[in-house]
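User: Quick sanity check before I run a bigger batch. Here is a single chain. Can you write out its predicted 3D structure?
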Amino acid sequence: MEKMVAVESGRMKKAHPVLDYLKEKGLVKNDRDLARVLEVNAPQMSKIRNGYMKFGASMILAVHEEFDIPIKEIKALLATMGE
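Assistant: Done. Predicted structure follows.
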């Protein structure tokens, strides 16, 4: 079953452990802000959020370089997606 999280507007959005972690830590405001910081387009970030595109090695490396989060920690967050 997919995990859902409430967003500010009161609607629900699919949970993504890495994207949600960055938002919870206050490193980005939303997915659009993260897309801008990582220099990807917003539709690509939406596809990642909704499971149509994999959060691949290039995204892991980009998050690591931009936010100084250990790759091991990012991979651990991604491993929780299967729960």
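The mean pLDDT is 86.

User: Great, the batch can go ahead then.
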